Amino acid sequence: FGNIHLHLDLIAGLPFEGYESFGRSFDRVYRMGPEQLQLGFLKVLKGSYMYENRDSYGLVYGSEPPYEVLKTRWLSYEELCRLKQIEKVLEIYYNSGQFLHTMERLCGFYDSPFALYEELASYFDRRGLFARQLGRQERFDILWEFIRSREELPDISSFYGVAWRELLVYDYYLRENAKTRPSFAPAQEPWRPSITRWYARYGAACERLAAYEGCSYRQLLHMTHAEVFSRGFSQNGQKVLILFDYRARNPLTNNAAAWEAEGWTNDDE
Question: Closest Cα to residue 118, out of 145, 93, 152?
Fold first, then answer.
Protein backbone atom coordinates (compact mmCIF):
# COMPACT_ATOMS: atom_id res chain seq x y z
CA PHE A 1 0.00 0.00 0.00
CA GLY A 2 3.01 2.28 -0.16
CA ASN A 3 2.94 3.15 3.52
CA ILE A 4 5.46 0.78 5.13
CA HIS A 5 8.87 2.28 5.83
CA LEU A 6 11.54 -0.37 5.25
CA HIS A 7 14.69 0.09 7.36
CA LEU A 8 17.41 -2.52 6.80
CA ASP A 9 20.74 -2.85 8.61
CA LEU A 10 24.11 -4.33 7.74
CA ILE A 11 26.78 -4.99 10.38
CA ALA A 12 30.43 -4.71 9.38
CA GLY A 13 33.04 -6.75 11.26
CA LEU A 14 31.19 -10.02 11.65
CA PRO A 15 33.26 -13.24 11.56
CA PHE A 16 34.09 -14.71 8.15
CA GLU A 17 33.10 -11.57 6.24
CA GLY A 18 35.73 -9.55 4.41
CA TYR A 19 35.53 -6.32 2.47
CA GLU A 20 34.45 -7.88 -0.82
CA SER A 21 31.78 -10.11 0.70
CA PHE A 22 30.44 -7.13 2.65
CA GLY A 23 30.19 -5.25 -0.65
CA ARG A 24 28.12 -8.08 -2.10
CA SER A 25 25.83 -7.99 0.94
CA PHE A 26 25.50 -4.24 0.48
CA ASP A 27 24.48 -4.65 -3.16
CA ARG A 28 21.93 -7.32 -2.35
CA VAL A 29 20.23 -5.23 0.32
CA TYR A 30 20.50 -1.95 -1.63
CA ARG A 31 18.67 -3.51 -4.58
CA MET A 32 15.75 -4.33 -2.28
CA GLY A 33 15.09 -0.58 -2.27
CA PRO A 34 14.63 0.10 1.45
CA GLU A 35 13.88 3.66 2.53
CA GLN A 36 16.82 3.40 4.92
CA LEU A 37 19.96 1.27 4.63
CA GLN A 38 22.04 1.67 7.75
CA LEU A 39 25.62 0.46 8.02
CA GLY A 40 26.45 -0.55 11.57
CA PHE A 41 29.72 -1.79 13.04
CA LEU A 42 30.17 -4.74 15.35
CA LYS A 43 30.31 -3.95 19.07
CA VAL A 44 32.34 -6.39 21.19
CA LEU A 45 30.47 -6.26 24.49
CA LYS A 46 31.84 -7.99 27.56
CA GLY A 47 30.08 -11.27 28.24
CA SER A 48 28.85 -11.61 24.67
CA TYR A 49 29.63 -14.48 22.31
CA MET A 50 31.89 -12.20 20.28
CA TYR A 51 33.80 -11.18 23.39
CA GLU A 52 34.33 -14.80 24.43
CA ASN A 53 35.64 -15.65 20.94
CA ARG A 54 37.56 -12.43 20.29
CA ASP A 55 40.92 -14.15 20.00
CA SER A 56 39.82 -16.89 17.60
CA TYR A 57 38.13 -14.28 15.39
CA GLY A 58 41.05 -11.85 15.64
CA LEU A 59 38.78 -9.09 16.93
CA VAL A 60 40.49 -5.84 17.82
CA TYR A 61 38.11 -3.26 19.27
CA GLY A 62 38.03 0.02 21.15
CA SER A 63 38.83 -0.01 24.86
CA GLU A 64 36.04 2.47 25.63
CA PRO A 65 32.30 2.17 25.00
CA PRO A 66 30.78 1.31 22.61
CA TYR A 67 33.73 -1.14 22.11
CA GLU A 68 33.44 -0.92 18.36
CA VAL A 69 35.45 -3.33 16.23
CA LEU A 70 38.61 -1.92 14.63
CA LYS A 71 39.67 -4.95 12.63
CA THR A 72 39.10 -8.68 12.34
CA ARG A 73 40.88 -11.65 10.82
CA TRP A 74 38.98 -10.99 7.59
CA LEU A 75 38.71 -7.20 7.60
CA SER A 76 41.62 -4.80 8.03
CA TYR A 77 41.58 -1.52 9.93
CA GLU A 78 41.98 0.36 6.64
CA GLU A 79 39.01 -1.44 5.13
CA LEU A 80 36.86 -0.65 8.16
CA CYS A 81 37.83 3.01 7.86
CA ARG A 82 36.81 2.83 4.22
CA LEU A 83 33.42 1.42 5.17
CA LYS A 84 33.02 4.28 7.64
CA GLN A 85 33.44 6.73 4.79
CA ILE A 86 30.97 4.82 2.63
CA GLU A 87 28.50 4.95 5.51
CA LYS A 88 28.74 8.75 5.57
CA VAL A 89 28.08 9.28 1.87
CA LEU A 90 25.30 6.68 2.02
CA GLU A 91 23.60 8.74 4.72
CA ILE A 92 23.79 11.86 2.57
CA TYR A 93 22.93 10.51 -0.86
CA TYR A 94 20.66 7.57 -0.09
CA ASN A 95 19.17 7.65 3.39
CA SER A 96 18.25 11.33 3.13
CA GLY A 97 15.86 10.43 0.30
CA GLN A 98 16.78 13.68 -1.45
CA PHE A 99 18.68 12.26 -4.43
CA LEU A 100 16.46 9.36 -5.49
CA HIS A 101 16.40 9.82 -9.25
CA THR A 102 19.96 11.05 -9.68
CA MET A 103 21.44 8.18 -7.66
CA GLU A 104 19.28 5.63 -9.45
CA ARG A 105 20.60 6.88 -12.80
CA LEU A 106 24.20 6.95 -11.54
CA CYS A 107 23.99 3.36 -10.30
CA GLY A 108 23.40 2.26 -13.88
CA PHE A 109 26.91 3.38 -14.82
CA TYR A 110 28.68 1.29 -12.18
CA ASP A 111 29.21 -2.42 -11.78
CA SER A 112 27.27 -2.28 -8.52
CA PRO A 113 25.75 0.21 -6.05
CA PHE A 114 28.66 -0.48 -3.69
CA ALA A 115 31.12 0.55 -6.40
CA LEU A 116 29.31 3.87 -6.84
CA TYR A 117 29.43 4.69 -3.12
CA GLU A 118 33.10 3.64 -3.00
CA GLU A 119 33.85 6.11 -5.77
CA LEU A 120 31.82 8.83 -4.11
CA ALA A 121 33.58 8.23 -0.78
CA SER A 122 36.96 8.52 -2.52
CA TYR A 123 35.87 11.81 -4.06
CA PHE A 124 34.86 13.15 -0.63
CA ASP A 125 38.14 11.98 0.88
CA ARG A 126 40.31 13.59 -1.82
CA ARG A 127 38.56 16.93 -1.39
CA GLY A 128 38.57 16.87 2.41
CA LEU A 129 34.76 16.96 2.52
CA PHE A 130 34.41 14.54 5.44
CA ALA A 131 35.87 17.19 7.76
CA ARG A 132 33.16 19.73 6.89
CA GLN A 133 29.53 20.27 7.77
CA LEU A 134 27.70 20.38 4.46
CA GLY A 135 24.46 22.25 3.87
CA ARG A 136 21.68 20.87 1.71
CA GLN A 137 22.46 22.92 -1.39
CA GLU A 138 26.18 22.24 -1.07
CA ARG A 139 25.48 18.51 -1.11
CA PHE A 140 23.73 18.95 -4.45
CA ASP A 141 26.59 21.09 -5.76
CA ILE A 142 29.10 18.41 -4.73
CA LEU A 143 27.16 15.68 -6.50
CA TRP A 144 27.01 17.83 -9.63
CA GLU A 145 30.78 18.33 -9.52
CA PHE A 146 31.24 14.60 -8.95
CA ILE A 147 29.15 13.84 -12.05
CA ARG A 148 31.17 16.32 -14.08
CA SER A 149 34.41 14.66 -12.94
CA ARG A 150 33.21 11.25 -14.22
CA GLU A 151 33.23 12.18 -17.91
CA GLU A 152 35.88 9.56 -18.68
CA LEU A 153 33.55 6.71 -17.70
CA PRO A 154 31.79 4.90 -20.58
CA ASP A 155 28.57 6.59 -21.75
CA ILE A 156 28.42 9.11 -18.91
CA SER A 157 29.68 11.90 -21.15
CA SER A 158 26.62 11.49 -23.34
CA PHE A 159 24.41 12.40 -20.39
CA TYR A 160 26.66 15.16 -19.14
CA GLY A 161 24.93 18.54 -19.21
CA VAL A 162 21.23 19.29 -19.29
CA ALA A 163 19.93 15.81 -18.48
CA TRP A 164 22.10 15.40 -15.39
CA ARG A 165 21.45 18.95 -14.21
CA GLU A 166 17.74 18.46 -14.61
CA LEU A 167 17.73 15.22 -12.68
CA LEU A 168 19.40 17.07 -9.82
CA VAL A 169 16.93 19.95 -10.11
CA TYR A 170 14.04 17.48 -10.08
CA ASP A 171 15.34 15.87 -6.88
CA TYR A 172 16.10 19.29 -5.41
CA TYR A 173 12.52 20.57 -5.69
CA LEU A 174 10.90 17.29 -4.75
CA ARG A 175 11.81 17.83 -1.11
CA GLU A 176 11.11 21.53 -0.66
CA ASN A 177 9.95 24.64 -2.45
CA ALA A 178 13.39 26.19 -2.10
CA LYS A 179 13.65 29.92 -2.67
CA THR A 180 17.38 29.74 -3.43
CA ARG A 181 17.90 28.25 -6.86
CA PRO A 182 20.90 25.91 -7.26
CA SER A 183 23.78 27.17 -9.37
CA PHE A 184 23.65 24.20 -11.77
CA ALA A 185 19.94 24.63 -12.58
CA PRO A 186 19.13 25.58 -16.19
CA ALA A 187 17.68 29.07 -16.59
CA GLN A 188 13.89 29.33 -16.31
CA GLU A 189 13.42 33.02 -17.10
CA PRO A 190 12.28 32.43 -20.72
CA TRP A 191 9.40 30.29 -19.45
CA ARG A 192 8.07 32.54 -16.70
CA PRO A 193 5.32 34.17 -18.81
CA SER A 194 3.97 30.85 -20.09
CA ILE A 195 4.09 29.34 -16.59
CA THR A 196 2.14 32.30 -15.18
CA ARG A 197 -0.42 31.96 -17.98
CA TRP A 198 -0.86 28.28 -17.18
CA TYR A 199 -1.57 29.02 -13.52
CA ALA A 200 -3.99 31.80 -14.43
CA ARG A 201 -5.84 29.62 -16.95
CA TYR A 202 -5.77 26.17 -15.39
CA GLY A 203 -4.51 26.39 -11.80
CA ALA A 204 -7.79 26.96 -9.98
CA ALA A 205 -9.61 24.33 -12.07
CA CYS A 206 -6.90 21.67 -11.82
CA GLU A 207 -8.28 18.66 -9.92
CA ARG A 208 -4.83 17.71 -8.67
CA LEU A 209 -4.58 21.09 -6.94
CA ALA A 210 -7.94 20.73 -5.17
CA ALA A 211 -6.19 21.05 -1.79
CA TYR A 212 -5.53 24.71 -2.66
CA GLU A 213 -9.20 25.58 -3.20
CA GLY A 214 -9.82 29.26 -2.60
CA CYS A 215 -6.27 30.28 -3.42
CA SER A 216 -5.62 32.71 -6.23
CA TYR A 217 -3.38 31.69 -9.09
CA ARG A 218 -0.69 33.99 -7.75
CA GLN A 219 -0.85 32.22 -4.40
CA LEU A 220 -0.58 28.90 -6.22
CA LEU A 221 2.53 30.17 -7.96
CA HIS A 222 4.22 30.67 -4.59
CA MET A 223 2.83 27.64 -2.75
CA THR A 224 3.78 25.13 -5.45
CA HIS A 225 6.76 25.01 -7.78
CA ALA A 226 6.72 24.72 -11.56
CA GLU A 227 9.78 23.79 -13.60
CA VAL A 228 10.22 23.40 -17.34
CA PHE A 229 12.32 20.40 -18.29
CA SER A 230 14.00 19.75 -21.61
CA ARG A 231 13.10 17.40 -24.43
CA GLY A 232 15.62 14.89 -23.17
CA PHE A 233 13.80 14.73 -19.86
CA SER A 234 10.38 13.94 -21.31
CA GLN A 235 9.21 10.78 -23.04
CA ASN A 236 7.61 12.42 -26.07
CA GLY A 237 10.57 14.59 -27.01
CA GLN A 238 8.86 17.86 -26.07
CA LYS A 239 9.54 20.28 -23.26
CA VAL A 240 7.30 19.66 -20.29
CA LEU A 241 6.10 21.68 -17.32
CA ILE A 242 6.35 19.71 -14.08
CA LEU A 243 4.42 20.85 -11.01
CA PHE A 244 5.59 20.05 -7.49
CA ASP A 245 2.76 19.84 -4.95
CA TYR A 246 4.04 20.14 -1.37
CA ARG A 247 0.66 19.44 0.21
CA ALA A 248 0.64 15.96 -1.35
CA ARG A 249 3.76 14.29 -0.03
CA ASN A 250 4.85 10.67 -0.23
CA PRO A 251 4.38 9.18 3.27
CA LEU A 252 7.61 7.19 2.96
CA THR A 253 10.01 9.71 1.42
CA ASN A 254 8.31 13.00 2.35
CA ASN A 255 8.88 14.10 -1.23
CA ALA A 256 6.28 16.22 -2.98
CA ALA A 257 3.95 14.87 -5.61
CA ALA A 258 5.25 15.81 -9.07
CA TRP A 259 3.33 15.59 -12.32
CA GLU A 260 3.16 17.02 -15.81
CA ALA A 261 0.92 20.04 -16.18
CA GLU A 262 -1.69 19.38 -18.86
CA GLY A 263 -2.47 22.22 -21.21
CA TRP A 264 0.90 23.94 -20.92
CA THR A 265 2.50 24.83 -24.23
CA ASN A 266 6.04 25.94 -24.92
CA ASP A 267 4.91 28.89 -27.02
CA ASP A 268 7.65 31.10 -25.56
CA GLU A 269 10.45 28.90 -26.95
Answer: 93
